[in-house]
Amino acid sequence: MGKIWAGLALSLAALTPAVGTPNEAPAPRTLPVIPSVRDFQPAGSGVFHLGPGTRVRAGRGSAAEDEARLLAGQLQVPFGFDDAKGDGDGPAGTGDITLRIDGPGAGTTKNAADVNESYVLTARNGQVTIDAPTDAGAFYGTRTLLQTLRAGTGMPEGVIKDAPDRPQRGLLLDIARKPFTRDWIEDRIRQLGDLKLNQLHLHFSDDQGFRIESSSHPEIVSRDHLSKADLRAIIDLAAQRHVTVIPEIDSPGHLGAVIRAHPDLQLVNASGRALPGAIDISKAASARMVDDLTREFAPLFPGLYWHLGGDEYQALVVSDPETSYPQLVPPGGTVAEATTRWLNDREAVAKKFGKRTKAWNDGFISTPRAVPDRDREVEYWTGKELGARDPEEYLTAGRKVVNLNDEYLYYVLGEPNDFTYPTGERIYKEWTPAVLRGTSPVAASLATPDRVLGGRFAVWCDLADAQSQDEVARGIRLPLNAVAQKLWYPGTPPLSWPAFKALADKVG
């Protein structure tokens, strides 16, 4: 996970008073940036502003070149090559911004796990330098600089040393229940990148729809869907903004779109009643279907993660699963055992493509003869399910947990089932990565960044027509800003909520 470099490997050559008028007052320690930087040491009274001669520079062929060209385009200033090796466009001058990658693992970090996302930004003598060990860190340094310029204050002279508290930070988007356009999704990716959020989880298969073009099973695809060309464009933009796209094909529940095309896979109880969205895991054809889709889609998503789903399988929410679903019972076993083996088998297919898997917390069911794979990450969303297990149980067992607490982080369209739209203010004031269930945190010793890996804000579209795309974008803007703050910057935020909201209106 990202850590501020030990020693001086991260000496970001500083932002200093460029072409703007020097600020005679002492530089503030709180910068107009969301999320807040971890450490800023003012040095002098100057302020960096863009000037007529400003260039954004990086070494020729270096991993920082893409980040520098992106920033130059956004600032509408020229790009130039750094002259550190004598092959550039001359020495840096007043108003110039230089990006350098000079740490271990440089240029190898897109879509990786445990990426060093740190950077050092220095403002000095009318120039800015951003040093980072990886292209991801350099990118985040450019986001900090961009926000100080957007805020209109410029970048005060001094040195920023910054890195995220949690390695996983992002947004879940339910495109299965509500189709979102490619343009809208790409706008959210740009927003995520600017907020230093690094994951976009696409829930693209559910009872209401299957929303990405499929060549292995075109019969299951909904009318409104993303083409594979759309998907490639989304993934390419996400890589540019250091956002990993996490695919989810939820099983063995939430497969209604598949079942409509293949009714023979429908789970039926002993009374002949069909259970919505539930696939019959006793049938070999059910496994073949999900594995076909995994084999098709896993190579299309270059990121590390694959989400198995695993939640709300209807065979497990009755009082006596073995009597209700005798066809699912393995010899001498239970329905819970069969379900755990099912998910382990689906995971085995994903692992052949080098994926690290995730599943919802109610999909983790240990039995005497079957245990969920030890490497699978727990996506903790609820404590309301039948037989609910506290998050402490997963953490003390040594499992890695990601926070999607439905009390704070679930934006459910139409507000069904007692959900209310979460607010940025409530997240900002009350929620932390340690608050995994309800409103109470787990013990600090269990909530360290190597155990609670981060969190994601989730947009679920249960009542798809309750809001338009534009309304969703407006509704999640402040919550996303608040989530970004709480996942990057540990501890109490330095700004009051009114001040943070005002800043988000400017830069977020």
TrEMBL record:
Domain Beta-hexosaminidase bacterial type N-terminal, residue spans: 32-163
Keywords, ordered alphabetically: Glycosidase, Hydrolase, Signal
Gene3D superfamilies: Chitobiase/beta-hexosaminidase domain 2-like (3.30.379.10), Glycosidases (3.20.20.80)
Family according to the record: Belongs to the glycosyl hydrolase 20 family.
GO MF terms, alphabetically ordered: hydrolase activity
Region forming the signal peptide: 1-20
Coiled-coil blocks: none
SUPFAM superfamilies per record: (Trans)glycosidases, beta-N-acetylhexosaminidase-like domain
InterPro entries: Beta_hexosaminidase_sua/sub (IPR025705), GH (IPR017853), GH20_Enzymes (IPR052764), Glyco_hydro_20_cat (IPR015883), Hex-like_dom2 (IPR029018), HEX_bac_N (IPR015882)
Superkingdom field: Bacteria
Boundaries of every Glycoside hydrolase family 20 catalytic domain copy: 169-470
Lineage of origin: Bacteria, Bacillati, Actinomycetota, Actinomycetes, Kitasatosporales
Pfam families, alphabetized: Glyco_hydro_20, Glyco_hydro_20b
Protein's recorded name: Glycoside hydrolase family 20 protein
Residue intervals passing through the bilayer: none
